[in-house]
Structure formats: C-alpha cells, structure tokens
Specification:
With 104 residues, the protein is α+β, with helices and mostly antiparallel strands. The protein has a single domain (2-93), classed as Alpha-Beta Plaits, CATH 3.30.70.60. 32% of the residues lie in helices and 45% in strands. It has helices at 16-32, 69-80, 98-101; strands at 2-10, 36-52, 55-67, 85-92. A hairpin with a 2-residue loop joins strand 2 and strand 3 (55-67). The radius of gyration is 14 Å and the shape is globular. The model has no long low-confidence stretch (mean pLDDT 88).
C-alpha cells in the first residue's frame, strides 16, 4: 500500500452538518476500497484563483491515507460525479521527502 494525500475543494455553500456529511462520504469511499485514513482536516473556506463551476470560493479538505495504487483512479472517478466536490486531486507521498516533513 502506498501513502497518499488528497486535496478536495468542496462547494462553499455547505454548512456544518452538510459539510460533515460530505467529509464522511469521502472518507467512507476511501475505507470501502480498503484504504486506511491517517489524518483528515478541514482547512476552511478560501478564495479561489479562478472560478470553478461559477464559484469564487471553496472549502478545502485535506486527507492523508494509505491504499493500493489502483484505488486512486476509482476514487477520483467517483468524486468527480459528486456535485459537492468542485475539484479533487490525489498525490502520492514519497517516504523521506522534505515535503512530507512540513508541519503546520
């Protein structure tokens, strides 16, 4: 299993309960594919550099997880169909990389 970091931009109109539901949905999609979630954070609402689906803001969600490589494509396909997800990107984390050691 490889380590991955997923950055998801969600619809800015989601409020507390709907935001939690959407976060749980994404986490459940990872777990369904036998992935293991190590960390999940809502980074908050941020202004977008350009509009996506006529939205000028988005709620950023960061999830660190481990799964098999073939799961990443399946996960991205499912999330692209979700109307609350404006953008989804998943990056492979290389062990020993300086990028992985940066903490906030």
């Amino acid at each position: 299993m490889g380590s991955y970091e997923g950055m998801f931009i969600l619809n800015p109109n989601l409020d507390g309960e709907l935001l939690e539901k959407e976060m749980d949905y994404i986490k459940n999609e990872i777990v369904k594919q036998l992935g293991e979630i190590s960390d999940a954070k809502i980074l908050g609402k941020r202004h977008l550099a350009y509009s996506i689906k006529k939205m000028k803001e988005g709620i950023y969600l960061l999830i660190n997880f481990a799964c098999r490589p073939e799961v990443v494509d399946q996960l991205l396909k499912r999330l692209k169909l979700d109307t609350h997800v404006l953008r989804a990107a998943i990056f492979r984390k290389e062990p020993g990389s300086l990028f992985n050691e940066i903490k906030d």
